Amino acid sequence: MSMRRAIVAAATAVVVVSLLLTTACASSPSGGTAPPVNGIGPVTFAVGSDDAGFFATLIQPWNEAHPNQRVTLILLPEAENGQLAQLSANLQAGSSLYDVIAMDVIWTAEFAAAGWIIPLESSLFPLGDFLRPAVDTAVYNGRLWAVPYYSNAEVLYYRKDILARAHTLPPVTWAQLARQAETVAPRYGLQGYAGQLAPYEGLTVNFADAIQSAGGSILSPAGTVTVDSPQARQGLDFLIDGLRRGWIAKSSLTDEEESSWGEFESGRLLFLNNWPFIYSQASQPGPVNKVYGKVGVVPLPGLDGPGSSSLGGANLAVSAFSKHQATAIAFIQYLTSLPAEREMLTDSGFPPVWTSLYSDPAMDRLFPYLPVVKRAILAAQPRPSIVGYDQASLAISSAVYQALTGRKSAREALGELQRQLSQIIRDG
After folding, report:
1. Fewer CB atoms near the end CB (10 Å): N or C, the chain?
2. Are 350 and 150 a contacting pair, CB within 8 Å?
């Protein structure tokens, strides 16, 4: 069966399921307009504008098979803080503008606690076939509030041609990373390493990577703030020391994902910490891509061995104020079906949540980095699952940036951050 026919077949099959969901959908949290009795009809799908082209292609088979349950894209801002602000404003007002919402994995707790999305019946989705860390991001207080769509974990990109010339294997530990960035990179006219250390969410992620890779954490499993610890200081000191010694490029202090990729793409860096989507860009030949055919990828190094990334990705949720929740759930089943996930990977390079796709020979030929990404996702840790995550992330990035730029010591910054996060959790 062709990919397109398989997806249409899946779409048609889930319509039957949608008819069985009426009772479940009618039990959404209070606050929204009560959905019609059958909950079936046209729906909207709120996504970031940077993903618009891909999703427009993917929803076409659904719309052809379901003329009375068509999906219309609603484009949100490209930046995640803009997406969150727009979604929050509409959902706080009880607007039925959105039916299906593509959410960053870090928003589950906030949206669920606010009553903006509905709990979902886990038996309706093949969660046992999904990567376990991805499923965990969709759970809050023991209930499923969203469905994993794609997962993510940061990895280390490196110039495999340079390391081959230097007769050196890619780094596994921080000491190896620092030594190669300090000695090999300048020998070939390169800077050593770049991450995303500008004061925004990317810095929160890079900081979490560092402290987790030293054995620390921001929160304990019980939700206690643990950021002021010897392990966290060791992780933060690693970044501070790298900037001071110069093997971490100073440009990292203003870099976000795309700007740091631009430095790597131009051939100025030996190492880059970034998300898996970079590999697809690095694999495209072009006049500005100086690293085409020269890029390798490994898990992030850690203190004594492979490190731990922050877990990223996107989940799909149903608005509590949607008037067609049965169709919304059926559409999510379609998007997260195996054929649709395979097409998502093929067309976009987003890491899928279906475990089987990571061992699919055809996918591995197209995306040879998949085994590394799977290892990184399984070793990754979620960012703090708390109400008011946006406020917490702002506090983290601000405190860490002050330490990276020498305005405060690591001890001072982490002590202050411990107090701020504790207050945010109490207020939440």
Report:
1. N
2. yes
**Distance between CA atoms of residues 318 and 193, nearest Å:** 41
Rounded to whole angstroms, the Cα distance separating 401 from 162 reads 31
Contact 172, 336 (CB under 8 A): no
Q: Coil, helix or strand for 264?
A: helix
Q: Which of 89, 85, 56 is nearest to 73 (CA)?
A: 56
Q: What is the pLDDT of residue 11?
A: 44
Contact 341, 349 (CB under 8 A): no
Answer yes or no: same fold for 3-152+312-379 and 155-309+386-427.
Answer: yes
Among residues 91, 359, 399, 85, the alpha carbon closest in space to that of 232 is found at 399
Predicted confidence (pLDDT) per residue in 145-176, tens digit: 999 999 999 999 999 999 999 999 999 999 99
If we measure between CA atoms, which residue out of 44, 55, 147 comes closest to residue 96?
44
Q: What is the pLDDT of residues 78-99, one digit of tens each?
A: 888 889 999 999 999 999 999 9
**Token pair of 161 as six digits:** 């041609």
User: What CATH code is assigned to 155-309+386-427?
Assistant: 3.40.190.10
- Correct CATH for 3-152+312-379 of 3.40.190.80, 3.30.110.40, 3.30.1050.10, 3.40.190.10: 3.40.190.10
Amino acid at 35: P
Cβ atoms of 234 and 216 within 8 Å: the answer is: yes
Residue 320: both structure tokens together: 């509590």
Q: Where are the domains of the chain?
A: 3-152+312-379, 155-309+386-427
* Identity of residue 409: S
Global pTM reads 0.88
224 backbone φψ class: left, alpha, beta (φ>0; ψ -120 to 50): beta
How far is 110 from 157, CA to CA, in rounded Å?
33
Helix (H) or strand (E) holding 193: strand 191-194
